[in-house]
Design brief:
homodimer, 10-stranded mixed sheet, Alpha-Beta Plaits, about 30% strand, alpha+beta
Chain lengths: ~250, ~250
């Protein structure tokens, strides 16, 4: 049986999603819990919609795995949550067709980035939003964001460490919104490159503070050079919010 | 100069407010930061509105101390926050009259208790609200709460470890409200005994689940016996929300 899971995790104490030698990762914890649940000697491999970086959170990461167990869908979260550490929570499980693939089947992903704009940081949000107590022009940030919507080569907004050759991605939506704590940026696209959302946030904040002019955004895209864009915003403000599949 | 501070702290990693040998406490961290700021050999003693237990949070704890430094009020938070660990944040400072006393001058205090009633815990709130995924009758919980409002001897709602002899306190307000994550209980009173809010929450949840009947609340008060009331709810849902002074 192929099982699809939707899970949240607090990225603070993880070295990202994907298994790394000698580091605590979400994938490793998931596979450990599945091994115990299956009383299995073999590893139960988990495939995700994509990795998240060290320190990045997830509200709706999606993974799949194959299991010989016949556990009803609504019982999978209880079974796994009882074995997982408290910073990972399985929210939902669904038995899916063998053709479902958490990585290759994605049609779009949504990320959100939270910013605490208060003078002194909210102590309860310090691990969950980026404290940025500086003046900003929200209108300019939104206009700069609008220039990124559509299909572009995002080389300038991608870590040079990325292994991906094709850096063309489509952004369907990029919206800044005011929240109780300050700001959030909602971004939806067909795929995101290494550090892409964090570099976009950093660049748009630089537009908001006047360090980068709005006119310059098109030049930055065209430069196809990481040096052209702004700094990347810190990991702990970023959330993989939801992953969508066509069928 | 006497300085009044309003501060927030994340209680998760503190052994309460008050200095304890060999334990990390809020008071110790504050006094350490003040000592560095004053380049002082002498300890700068901090007086709070009252201690909070191990694991209990504060949104608006209030303290005072005396200082020879003439720092403008709005600069105190920056000066102290730069020296404090990230789980304590000074939100506001005010130069007050020598007659101000953070402990003896309080007129009322407000606590709030947060409950996450979702089926599977919100991973980002796990340290900041009590996960209680069980059915409850909110109306009964409110009616039971109404019986506690007023002036009563709260011996039944106080840890037997309390050193206070007079256990009569007045509750001005006790309200349950629905929130995005589930529930909050707001309680305002002229003073609270050791574990009092947590025992009230635990008892009212027991009323909500039918384990304690509404009729029984008056008997519990009259029993003046901790055994008569319900279990105490966990510390990590509780916040000292604000402290009020008459002048």
């Amino acid at each position: 049986m192929r099982i699809k899971l939707i899970l949240s995790y607090d990225g603070s104490r993880f070295y990202g999603f994907q298994v790394q030698p000698n580091q605590r990762t979400v994938q490793e914890e998931l596979e450990k819990a599945l091994k115990v649940l299956h009383k299995s000697k073999e590893k139960i491999s988990v495939i995700s919609s994509g990795r998240t970086d060290s320190g990045v959170h997830a509200v709706g990461q999606c993974v799949h795995f194959d299991s010989p167990l016949s556990i009803p869908d609504h019982k999978w979260p209880y079974a796994l949550n009882s074995l997982l550490p408290p910073d990972i929570v399985v929210r939902q499980a669904e038995t899916v067709d063998e053709s479902f693939h958490a990585r290759y089947g994605t049609s779009w992903k949504e990320y959100r980035y939270f910013i605490d704009t208060s003078k002194h940081p909210d102590v309860f949000r310090r691990l969950y939003s980026y404290h940025y107590p500086y003046p900003f022009e929200l209108k300019a940030m939104q206009e700069a964001g609008n220039l990124l919507v559509g299909t572009h080569d995002f080389t300038s907004f991608c870590s040079p460490k990325s292994g991906k050759e094709n850096k063309v991605r489509t952004i369907y939506k990029l919206e800044w919104e005011k929240t109780d704590e300050g700001l959030q940026m909602i971004i939806v696209g067909n795929g995101f490159l290494y550090n892409m959302v964090r570099i976009i946030v950093g660049t748009l904040l630089a537009v908001g503070s006047g360090k980068i002019s709005l006119d310059h955004i098109t030049d930055i895209i065209e430069a196809k050079n990481r040096q052209a864009a702004g700094k990347k915003a810190p990991a702990h403000g970023l959330y993989l919010w939801q992953v969508n599949y066509d069928n």
